[in-house]
Amino acid sequence: xxxxxxxxxxxxxxxxxxxxxxxxxxxxxxxxxxxxxxxxxxxxxxxxxxxxxxxxxxxxxxxxxxxxxxxxxxxxxxxxxxxxxxxxxxxxxxxxxxxxxxxxxxxxxxxxxxxxxxxxxxxxxxxxxxxxxxxxxx
Length: 138
What we know:
Four Helix Bundle (Hemerythrin (Met), subunit A), 5 helices, 81% helix
């Protein structure tokens, strides 16, 4: 197998995983789904970097930049999840002002993430990205 074929296989597999995680996060952006989404974004982005010599550079950068925005939103949610875990470990009541503020911030970030990932899904990003990265079999 040549490097081009191998690269396409690997990037396609990571893209499929990303698409699956985006769908899952849009349906239920719980802590596990957000974590899995972040992992999928990192893996896909890394595959684009690793195989940049055999992929269209400009398109790869555009995609990584777009994913950076989603990663930022998912990171905001993950930060709030960790803060809520710390507050729970500290036996802080859910009625405490700090708990309520962190939970409210998480819900707000969650809404932003849902909007962003649903926009990706509606735009049928996997097919568009396959095409722009020239991953489609010819």
